[in-house]
Amino acid sequence: MASRDDIKFLSNPKIGLKQKKYCRFRRFGIRHIDYKDPEFLKQFVNEQGKLLPRRITGNSLKYQKKVATAVKRARHLAYLPFVTDLLK
Question: What residue ranges do the domains of the chain occupy?
């Protein structure tokens, strides 16, 4: 019978292990989200220009609301587009 070392897995055995999501704002101590920095805000927007949800970004509720307002302000001042085909 084959030992565990001889078995070749079709998929990664670590595929079920998930890393714990964290709020990057709390971890790095960021208190203010600047709406005039479009490169930073692009991390929270997908290719079509939609906001990414909390479950994907890992932000806490407090900072997700601040990100949403910053993105909306940046859109109104034309730092970020409302809709696009390929933003990133």
Answer: 24-76
Q: Is 65 helix (H, G, I), strand (E, B) or coil?
A: helix
d(CA 80, CA 53): 18
Could you give the 3-state DSSP secondary structure of residue 32? coil
- The token duo for 4 is 């565990």
What pLDDT shows up at residue 72? 96
The answer to which of 11-15, 30-34, 43-47 has the lowest mean pLDDT is 11-15
Q: Measure Cα distances from 34 to 20, 68, 70, 73, 75 in Å.
A: 26, 11, 7, 10, 13
> 24, 58 in Cβ contact below 8 A?
yes
Say which CATH superfamily domain 24-76 falls into: Ribosomal protein S18 (4.10.640.10)
Taking the C-alpha atoms of residue 40 and residue 2, their distance in angstroms, rounded to an integer, is 51
User: Which tokens in the block code for residue 76?
Assistant: 């109104």
